[in-house]
Amino acid sequence: MGSLKQFFDETFLFIVRKGSYSPTYLIEEIVRLGIKTYDIIELDEVTNGQADTVMQAAELINKDEDILIYNIDTTIQPEYLSKEAIRQADGSVPLFKAEGTHWSFAKLDRTQKRITEMAEKRPISSWGSVGLYYFRQWQDFSEAFEVMSDQLLAEYGEIYIAPLYNYLIERGKTIHPVFLPEDSYAALGTPAELETFIHHQLENFQTGENV
Questions:
Q1: How many domains does the chain have?
Q2: Cα–Cα dist 96/178, whole Å
Q3: What's the 3-state SS for 129-193?
Q4: Considering 117, 183, 203, 207, which has the largest number of Cβ atoms within 10 A of its Cβ?
Q5: Which long-range contacts (CB under 8 A, 24 or more apart) does 34-39 make?
Q6: What one-character DSSP code corresponds to residue 62?
């Protein structure tokens, strides 16, 4: 959560699976980090994926509000996630030079200032997403979800967030990349990635708050 340090004065929505976390510990950590305004949404069952999970918060978000979605399976140096860097155009996606095929990938235009396509688990470029997604308007996200959810569920078996940007791009929306320097991020999504982080990368990060 320390990755989002520069956003701690915003409203946070924590979407969690009932019975799979400690409410007391979560609230203690929220308070320790200094997050003042938040809601906790408990889910009784597994959703149809990342985007479907986000949609469970629909009643708490106004259509014109902007949203920043974080999967929390990475950690990022917070100085590279400023509000000025993230709040660009109609949306933005922090990117890094990715290896392997297990990422969301972004294709850029020739100027490298706009994202022209997003793909899930298909390396259409060397630029991978760290699992953080900005939409200037909730309405854009929810509309893309309603139109694309069935297609994505059929294609992937779950509804990922990254491909939703393609709906917006096709309609003339501008999505900007936010480039992350090497060593400014680390993957934490698997036991092996966590082990690598602890033994080889942890010392490069601000420990405690940023992990």
A1: 1
A2: 9
A3: ECCEEEECCHHHHHHHHHHHHHHHHHHHCCCCCCCHHHHHHHCCCCEEEEECCCCCEEECCCHHH
A4: 117
A5: 34/8, 35/8, 36/8, 36/9, 37/10, 37/11, 37/12, 38/11, 38/12, 38/13, 38/14, 39/11, 39/12, 39/13, 39/14
A6: -
Q: Note the pTM of the prediction, 2 decimals.
A: 0.91
Residue with tokens 């597994």: 46
Would you tell me how many other CB atoms lie within 10 Å of the CB of residue 54?
Answer: 24
- Residue whose entry in the numeric block shows the structure tokens 């709040």: 87
Give a yes or no: residue 22 inside a domain.
no
Q: Give the Cα separation of 15 and 62 in Å (integer).
A: 17
Which residue in 2, 131, 1 sits closest to 69, CA to CA? 131
Q: Would 89 be classed as within a structural domain?
A: yes
Pairwise CA distance, residues 210 & 33, whole Å: 10
Please report, for the domain that includes residue 77, its CATH number. Answer: 3.90.550.10
Q: Does residue 128 fall inside a structural domain?
A: yes
Is 76 among the domain residues? yes
Look up the domain containing 170 and give its range.
Answer: 64-204
69 has which bridge partners? 133
